[in-house]
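Model the whole thing, not chain by chain.
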Amino acid sequence: GENVEQHPSTLSVQEGDSAVIKCTYSDSASNYFPWYKQELGKGPQLIIDIRSNVGEKKDQRIAVTLNKTAKHFSLHITETQPEDSAVYFCAASMGDKLIFGTGTRLQVFP
Amino acid sequence: KAGVTQTPRYLIKTRGQQVTLSCSPISGHRSVSWYQQTPGQGLQFLFEYFSETQRNKGNFPGRFSGRQFSNSRSEMNVSTLELGDSALYLCASNSGNTNEKLFFGSGTQLSVL
C-alpha cells in the first residue's frame, strides 16, 4: 500500500550538533520527495525537496539524500540552532498524491 | 502575495453536527488539497480539487466531502461528526500542474465534544 515510514518520532540535540531524520517509502515509482517544517500553530512549510534523478541536494545547513535502490531518503541539518526546533515531515509522491510520514519532533537545546 | 487562508481558525462542535471549513488558495493556484492532521498519524490525505473537479481522493468515509468554486476557493464539509474527527484540518494549494511545491495554510482546529 501507500506508505511512508519516518524515524525517529522525537529527536533532541544540543545546539551546534547535527540532526538526521530518515524516511522509507513503499512505491518504487515515487519520484518526488519534499521535506516540510511545521512550527507551533502554523501549517507545514516546504524547506527542501528532491527529485528521483538527483542523489543529494543541499541548501545552506540543510541537505537531503536519496537512495532509490533502498527506497529511503534522509534530511540532514548541520549546526543546529534553537529556531530549528519544530516538527519535520517527509513525503513521497505516489501517483498524483503526496503521502506524508508521521513526523519527527526536533528539539534543539541551547 | 497572500498565503493560503483558512477559516475559521478554531471550531468546537458536538457529535452528530456537521461542519464546513473554508480555504482560499494563493492567487493563481488552481489546485487545493485537504489533509487531516492528528497526533501520531501525521498528515492524512483527504482529497484534491482542480478546476472545480475532485481529481484525487484519499481513504476517508463519505461523511467527508468538498467542493471547489470557480475562483479556486474550496470548502470541506464533514457531516455527522464523530469524536474521532477532532483534528487539525490543513488546506494546501499549488499550481495544479504537478503535485510539487504545496503551500499550506495554518489550518482549522476542529474539536468534537
